[in-house]
Amino acid sequence: MSLQAGLSFDQAPPFSLPLRFFLTAPLFLLAAAGLVVQAPEALASRWTPQALALTHALTLGFLAMVMLGALTQMLPVVAGSKLPAPRRVAWVSHVSLVLGTVALMAGFLSARPLAYGLAAVLLAGGFAVFVAAAAVSLGRAVSSVTVRGIRLAVIGLAITLLLGLVLALLRAGGWVPPIVKAASAAHIGFGLLGWVLMLVIGVAFQVVPMFQITPPYPSWLSRRLTGGLFGLLLLHAIAPWLPGVAVHVVDAGLAGVVVLFAVTTLGLQARRRRKLPDITLNYWRFGMASLLSCAVVWALAQAQPRWAGGDTYPLLLGVLFIAGFAVSVVSGMLYKIVPFLAWFHLQAQLQARVGTIPTMRDMIAESHMHWQFGLHIVACVLLAATTQWPQLAMAAGAVLALSALLLWVNLLSAVRRFARYGGRFS
Question: Which residues neighbour 97 within 8 Å (Cβ) at sequence distance 6 or greater?
Answer without folding.
Answer: 60, 64, 65, 68, 122, 123, 126, 127
